[in-house]
Amino acid sequence: MTPLLEVQALTKGYGGRIGCSDVSFTLYPGEVLGIVGESGSGKSTLLNCLAGHLAPDAGRVIFDTRADGPRDVLAMSEPERRMLGRTDWAFVHQNPRDGLRMRISAGGNVGERLMAVGARHYGDIRAQAVDWLGRVEISDSRIDDRPSAFSGGMQQRLQIARNLVTGPRLVFMDEPTGGLDVSVQARLLDLIRGLVRRMGLSAIVVTHDLAVVRLLADRLMVMKDGRVIETGLTDQVLDDPQAAYTQLLVSSVLQV
Amino acid sequence: MIHVENLAKNFTLHNQGGAVIPVIAGAGFEVAPGECVALTGESGAGKSTVMRILYGNYLAQGGAVRIGGLDITRAEPREILALRRETLGYVSQFLRVVPRVPTIEVVAEPLLALGQREDVALARARDLLTRLRIPERLWALSPTTFSGGEQQRVNIARGFAHRYPALLLDEPTASLDATNRETVLSLIEEAKAGGAAIVGIFHDLEARARVADREIDVAAFTPGLS
Question: For residues B111 and B122, what is the distance between their CA atoms, to the nearest angstrom?
Fold first, then answer.
């Protein structure tokens, strides 16, 4: 099987400080990779380098594109990379405000992504928007409301709809359940899991919440000080952690 | 079907002065299709540790575990995931599910993950839940709020939904009443008759005597005990 994404020795520094250093991994179609670590461990830097929001200092990010097969994303032209960002890729931000347009309607937020890839027929766009709002459990009576009138959990679900409407193959998620109440988190996790399975999506989920990765991720990567210190099956890394830091991280989780 | 060879497992506790605790050494056994092997030994002897290594949940420090041709101790995560989807089932003592997912879907999920049609998967789930006496009015609810015994039975239904060629059972009859215990034992017998290779931990001696063809005392693999 051809990997969907192959990352080789990715490195990004901020002046003298390390953002992430020498990160390599392979992601296959349908796999969900979790990246955990404390604040400042480099997990968000890594995600932003992968998604093309930050330019890494060194390394390669090879993505199996629909049209031309495996290509180095970092060697692509800016318009090519932007097109990839609108079609094969999706990025779910921790703060829905970073991923939504707050001044246009919920339906418009979903429709805009479709128009960005060439959809022009108003009826089709509206029908798809209604369909996607339904899939993320937003009533179609709210289609003309602005996201600013939505709760945090609804905004996050709308952001997911906006991202998935174009049928991406790889979704980047940065703390997708951060800042939400636990009851809302559970609903969102269930939703993301269902979508991943039904659409055969691959995803890279960055979080500091070990319970979230246990439920969402097949594989886990633990980062500390910009480096990957442990990788493996999610349940294996959490139940039999090998590195000192991972053992500390797992044993520090409060039990409820 | 299951081949264990010279298996070794240590725990290194980095946050307690780097203490190395050897828990398994020189473990070896085989389980043929249609055979059920019971792991015995007192609490703390390492029965669950062996099971977890067989499932790829714990890493081994030495030896090999071949299940369906794959050496789990050296396999890539995605190979282990595929093995768990298709070949290797595990009924643990505790149910761990996503909150909010209805019981019927929790049970059908292993079949859906294999790409089975939804109606076929749900029919199998309904059949198992009925046999395990989970009242139908509970099927649409998440099992997270169920009693311990009900959760255990949902867990068993889920574990038996797909007919795995290799199956690991960690105390499948614990906390069950006589009728449900009987159902679980017949599920195990059916799986054996269907050719499944089974490794189990049974504290219930009668259950063990009925379904297990052989016993393996893990004390023989425990460093310091043998």
Answer: 9
Q: What is the pLDDT of residue B226?
A: 47
B198 strand-pairing partners: B36, B167
C-alpha span between B144 and A128 (Å, rounded): 34
Which residue has better confidence, B157 or A153?
B157
Contact flag A193-B100 (C-beta cutoff 8 Å): no
Residue type, B120: V
Reference B60, options B90, B18, B28, B93; nearest CA is: B28
Q: How far is CA A124 from CA A87, A117, A223, B157, in A?
A: 18, 14, 44, 43
Q: What is the pLDDT of residues B122-143, one digit of tens each?
A: 999 999 999 999 999 999 999 9
CB contact under 8 A, B57 and A236: yes
- Decide if pLDDT at B202 tops 80: yes
pLDDT value for B175: 81
Query: Can you give the pTM of this predicted structure?
Result: 0.90
Taking the CB of residue B58, how many other CB atoms lie within 10 A of it? 20
Report CA-CA distances (Å) from A253 to A109, A208, A245, B217: 37, 11, 13, 34
ipTM at complex level: 0.90
Q: If chain A, 256 residues long, is cut into consecutive pieces of 10 residues, what is the mean pLDDT of each piece? A: 93 90 94 91 92 92 91 91 88 92 93 88 90 88 93 90 90 86 76 81 91 90 95 95 92 73
Å between A96 CA and nearest CA of chain B: 23
Q: Of the candidates A195, A121, A193, which has an alpha carbon nearest to the alpha carbon of residue A163?
A: A195
Give the position of tokens 């195990």: B188
| CA terminus-to-terminus distance, chain A | 41
Segment holding B118, helix H or strand E: helix B118-131
Please tell me if residue B52 touches chain A, with a CB cutoff of 8 Å.
yes
Report the C-alpha gap between B196 and A192 in whole angstroms. 34
The encoded tokens of residue A103 equal 């001044």
The nearest alpha carbon in chain B to A231 belongs to B77
How far is Cα B224 from Cα B226, in angstroms, rounded to an integer?
A: 6
Sequence length of chain B is 226
